[in-house]
């Protein structure tokens, strides 16, 4: 197990290094010069004020989404449960876009956008819990109602776009997910939030492991299943809201990375949750590095001055393809 954690941590370091040298405006040699204390003022600004916070935000958001996904899948006993099932992701998108359309927030003010996204995400989760309360916390009903709540919130986002068509750029960024333009303020808002709620999720590792086995076994072991599930969902909501507020709605990270974490680190969530955090950081940071490299290649091939491939588009395409492969290879499996 220690070796697996060491390998995963090494992969995270490699992905972080690749992302630092993958962007436009600086050659890899210039990056190493700045890291060694050299470089001119422009190169230092690009690396230290733009690339470094972007890399850290990608790591933190990936870790948060992966842990949130594993918590949700364990609490709801649904292998297809992701952060979207709580209504947090579309709620955060709606909150950020609405605040931007009303002029209350803008991309030049990360704090205002983050606060608006968190309020929207918590409102989406609150709406789900109001509906799920009637089902007494039944996991299957909660998952279905979460899909319905997410659809309603997505429709409201579309209505905001119709009222304020000038906010199309904001809508696309939040719906797809991107790390473009992330600065130190985003990181300073993200890491304390992710650390606190990630630690809270880890403290619930024992109850979550019992919930994965079913409520009957959990009750036999003396666990108050409904209370433990509520606390777990609160952690998942908070982690998702923080990540979405920072980078938007990255698709499939919270759905597929937890399965990989369980396969690599085992079903004991005391190891699975930290493993999921590392793997989520690797996936998002690696995808962001690949997106930047692809953007450079596409811009050169199409002779375009500026072409940006959002990391969310890459994770969505690769995640969907991977999910289709898994379903086709295990057609008899019940999801």
Can you tag this structure with a few keywords?
335 residues; mainly alpha; ABC transporter involved in vitamin B12 uptake, BtuC; 14 helices; 77% helix; ABC_transptr_permease_BtuC
What is the tally of helical segments? 14
Mean pLDDT: 83
CATH architecture: Orthogonal Bundle
The figure for the number of domains is 1
Helix/strand structural class: mainly alpha
Q: Classify the helix fraction into a percent range.
A: over 70%
Distance between the termini: 28 Å
Number of strands: 0
**Which CATH class is shown?**
Mainly Alpha
Order of helices and strands: HHHHHHHHHHHHHH
Strand content: under 5%
Tell me the CATH topology. ABC transporter involved in vitamin B12 uptake, BtuC
Radius of gyration: 20 Å
Low-confidence stretches: none
Describe the structure.
With 335 residues, the chain is mostly helical. It has one domain (1-319): ABC transporter involved in vitamin B12 uptake, BtuC. It contains 14 helices and no strands. The protein has helices spanning 2-22, 28-35, 41-76, 88-101, 110-132, 139-163, 168-176, 184-203, 205-212, 215-220, 225-247, 253-265, 269-302, 311-329. Helix 1 (2-22) runs parallel beside helix 13 (269-302), helix 5 (110-132) runs antiparallel to helix 11 and helix 8 (184-203) packs antiparallel against helix 11. The chain is globular. The two termini are 28 Å apart.
């Amino acid at each position: 197990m220690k070796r697996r954690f060491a390998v995963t941590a090494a992969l995270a370091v490699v992905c972080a290094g690749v992302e630092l040298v993958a962007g436009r405006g600086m050659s890899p040699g210039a990056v190493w010069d700045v890291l060694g204390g050299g470089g001119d003022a422009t190169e230092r600004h690009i690396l230290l004020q733009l690339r470094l916070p972007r890399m850290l935000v990608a790591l933190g958001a990936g870790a948060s989404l992966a842990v949130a996904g594993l918590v949700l899948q364990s609490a709801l006993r649904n292998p297809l449960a992701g952060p979207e099932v709580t209504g947090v992701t579309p709620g955060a998108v709606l909150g950020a876009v609405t605040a931007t359309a009303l002029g209350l927030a803008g991309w030049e003010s990360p704090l205002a956008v983050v606060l608006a996204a968190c309020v929207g995400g918590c409102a989406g989760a609150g709406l789900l819990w109001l509906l799920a309360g009637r089902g007494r916390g039944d996991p299957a009903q909660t998952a279905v109602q979460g899909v319905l709540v997410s659809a309603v919130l997505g429709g409201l986002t579309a209505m905001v776009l119709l009222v304020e068509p000038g906010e199309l750029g904001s809508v696309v960024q939040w719906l797809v997910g991107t790390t473009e333009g992330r600065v130190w303020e985003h990181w300073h808002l993200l890491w304390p939030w992710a650390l606190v709620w990630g630690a809270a999720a880890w403290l619930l590792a024992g109850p979550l492991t019992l919930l994965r086995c079913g409520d009957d076994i959990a009750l036999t072991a003396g666990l108050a299943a409904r209370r433990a599930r509520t606390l777990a969902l609160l952690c998942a909501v908070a982690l998702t809201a923080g990540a979405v507020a920072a980078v938007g709605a990255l698709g499939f990270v919270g759905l597929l990375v937890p399965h990989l974490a369980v396969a690599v680190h085992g079903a004991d969530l005391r190891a699975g949750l930290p493993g999921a955090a590392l793997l989520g950081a690797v996936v998002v940071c690696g995808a962001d590095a690949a997106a930047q490299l692809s953007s450079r290649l596409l811009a050169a091939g199409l002779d375009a001055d500026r072409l940006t491939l959002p990391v969310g588009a890459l994770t969505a395409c690769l995640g969907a393809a991977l999910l289709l492969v898994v379903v086709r290879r295990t057609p008899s499996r019940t999801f």
